[in-house]
Amino acid sequence: MSRWRLRRREGILFRHPGNVVEIRRTRNGNGLFAAKRFQANERIIRIVGKVVSARIVTGTGGTFADNCFRCGPETYLDPGEEAGAYLNHSCEPNAYIRKSNNQLFLAAIRKIRRNDEIVIDYSTILGDDDIWTMRCNCGSTRCRKTIKHFGSLPSLLKARYVERGAVPRYILETLS
Ligand SMILES: C[S@@+](CC[C@H](N)C(=O)[O-])C[C@H]1O[C@@H](n2cnc3c(N)ncnc32)[C@H](O)[C@@H]1O
Ligand SMILES: [Zn+2]
Question: Would you state the CATH architecture of domain 3-121?
Fold first, then answer.
């Protein structure tokens, strides 16, 4: 049996170059999984893609808008078919988005074990001027059911994310 078919049997659809993450099926379509252990705050991958304007994102909508990452006051990153396009949301995330040197990185909030799904809280990259919402099916006992802009989070959760450095500055700057 070929290595590829063996991987298919293990449920691995695609392994990211560098062998740090892989794509597998989840309760919410495809998702990103850890192919190795990560320590808290460790960088997992760079979110690569094409920078697009807010006007393009809102004008296009659909899956395209669903997959874009806010990356500045008026800009988003379209991950195309790259790993970022498979990053799911959880109301109990183990990772977050960090901007450094004008690039977006996925980093661990806490220790992540090999084979864990890597998930972020989408609200941490939704500014108060973002109208995007999602019905959540993360399965956590802390599930908020509807995912919206950062300002919609309970105060304690907002404070915890900010304290951990899990909210990019350009998102905080949208808060009224
Ligand atoms: C960046 S994509 C993630 C990859 C996606 N699961 C796929 O198979 O293409 C974002 C989309 O995944 C789905 N999704 C991610 N997290 C979810 C969650 N917790 N509950 C329900 N749907 C989710 C939503 O359709 C969302 O618009
Ligand atoms: Zn949830």
Answer: Beta Complex (2.170)
